[in-house]
Amino acid sequence: MVNNLKIKISVRNLNIYYGSFLALKDITLDIPEKSITAIIGPSGCGKSTFLRALNRMNELLPDVRTVGEVLLDGQNIYSPNVDLVALRRKVGMVFQRPNPFPKSIFENVAFGLRIQGIKNREQIEEIVELSLRRAALWDEVKNKLHKSALELSGGQQQRLCIARVLAVQPEVILMDEPASALDPIATLRIEDLMRELREEYTIVIVTHNMQQAARVSDFTAFFLTDENRAGMLIEYGNTSEIFTMPKDPRTEGYITGRYG
Amino acid sequence: MKFREKVYVFFTALTVLIVVGLLFYIIFDIVRNGIGVISWEFISQPPREGMTKGGIFPALYGTLLRTLLMLIFVVPIGVFTAVYLNEYGSGKRFSKWIRLAINNLASIPSIVFGLFGLGFFVLFLRFGAGLLSASLTVGLLTLPLVVVSTEEALRAVPNSYREAGFALGATKWQVIRLIVLPQALPGILTGAILSVGRGMGEVAPILFTGVAYYLPYLPSSIFDQFMDLGYHIYIMTTQSFDVELTRPIQYGSTLVLLALTFSLNIVAILIRSKMRKRRLG
Question: Which of A42, A86, A151, A217 is least crowded, fewest Cβ atoms below 10 Å from its Cβ?
């Protein structure tokens, strides 16, 4: 199904354990470049764990063990000589709840540049403006760049978080239910933004909102738990096919709302 | 309301009254007897005529200096300890032992700190009895306060901020320095101020480590001996050749010491509430 597209991320036999509990079982899938891949499934099926495996954020939790390979442009991000800082710059992340730093709007976007040691004020200003424009937030905040980011609405905060990620010029953007804490209008704006960003970035989004997955994504992966509560991949394919003619009866059951 | 319920309410209200009443009685007594003595001369002049007249300036000066010196030692050490415990070593067995040690430190009688200071700083490290040894000894006593309040402040920083920082490619130290510590600053400041309030009034730890009964000159180096407000009150009430004669000075000194610690506590409360408001805004 994806054979005519360049593969950006290739997940090979990924297993993730929390202590002795197997949370994610033998996941293998290919994520194509410059497209939106949605991960759907009921709560607790390991969607977020899978997403956080793609920039090694699971390692911030104690007792997490990852087995298998995640190839980013053919390089295994779990090999021992990988630079975590460089990896996370390449693979940015937007979280479920908007989490801007309690700093000014400007400083939020500039943060990623400052930690890279960029000091040139003009360069920083330029990138901040560009990132805010790309995140469709510039017009709303250009006159209050030095006000606290916490004064923005939830939807604006989430777009600010996206701008913050864009500023470090990532190649992949991971989104963990980015609109679940937002109202419907703010949600639609985020979805529009995702469609625009797809032109340049590879986007992987976790969502429990099936309509959202159907609206924005090119490819959809459906996760479900097995009898031991380990998350596994049931079906993966073009979004239109998954939603109109799923091959697996469990996918059909979930999509038609029989469980989850 | 049932009768038994009423009895409980009555007793809890009574205990509150006792506590508040005692506090107000002490404050009232000190203010009533001390306010008349307070004057610019009392604050700015040294004692005269065998310490039966004059002011308390050298004692005030010594107290402020040794407290400032204490802050310089205790804040960095306390903050970095808390950063280690909360950010690097959380959950490790080693941290649990350190935390246990710190909690125990807080329950050691202050005179024991004084003796330790004498043995360790004054004699073993040969700092002699003076400002340095005394400040370090009081610093040990207030260290747990700084560590505990800093740890609390660090814990209150939402994990989502740390995650956002890591996800942008920040190193652990960058996350701590640029995100966590600025956010925890009000809590750290509060801890520092509380430790000042606590340390300033302590007498036992400085008893053998540097305080002097009377000095005709001000300390000019950190190894010099110094006069101190709390100790001044103590000697005026117990060692003075005429306790009744110096009564006004005793009350005046106590009032000054209380005013200092109270105002510091109020500053701590103000900082905390102001920062809290800013964080929500």
Answer: A86
Q: How far apart are CA A47 and CA A126, in angstroms?
A: 36
pLDDT at A82 over 60: yes
Output the 3-class SS for B147-166: HHHHHHHHHCCCHHHHHHHH
Query: Cα dihedral sign for A165, A171, A176, A181?
Result: positive
Q: Does domain B40-280 have CATH number 3.40.30.10?
A: no
Indicate whether A1 pLDDT > 80: no
- Looking at residue A258, its pLDDT comes to 61
Of A60, A100, A161, nearest to B166 by CB-CB distance is A60
- What residues of B are in contact with residue A86 (Cβ under 8 Å)? 169
Q: Quick one: how far is CA A171 from the chain centroid?
A: 12
Interface residue A181 vs chain B (CB under 8 A) = no
C-alpha distance from A244 to closest chain B C-alpha (Å): 35
Looking at this predicted complex, what is its ipTM? 0.90
Residues of A in contact with B279 (CB under 8 A): 102, 150
Instruction: Report CB contact under 8 Å: A62, B91.
Output: yes
Domain holding A62, by residue range, is 7-100+171-255
Contact B169 A97 (CB under 8 A): no
Task: Return the CATH number at A13.
Answer: 3.40.50.300
Residue A260 is assigned to a structural domain of this protein: no
Is A148 contained in some domain? no
d(CA A243, CA B29): 81
What is the count of structural domains for chain A?
Answer: 1
- Asked whether A17 and A23 are in contact (CB, 8 A), the reply is yes
Q: What is the pLDDT of residue B279?
A: 57
Distance between CA atoms of residues A157 and A105, nearest Å: 9
- Determine, yes or no, domain membership for A129: no
Cα separation of A13 and A70, whole Å? 9
CA angle A203, A204, A205 (to 5 degrees): 115
What's residue B281's pLDDT? 43
Share of chain A above pLDDT 70, in %: 98
Kindly list the residues from chain A whose CB atom is less than 8 angstroms away from the CB atom of residue B166: 57, 60, 88
CA–CA min distance A213, chain B (Å): 24
d(CA B120, CA B262): 32
**Is A31 inside a domain boundary?**
yes
* Cross-chain residue pair B166–A150, CB shorter than 8 Å: no
pTM: 0.84
Residue ranges with strand state E in chain B: 47-48, 53-54
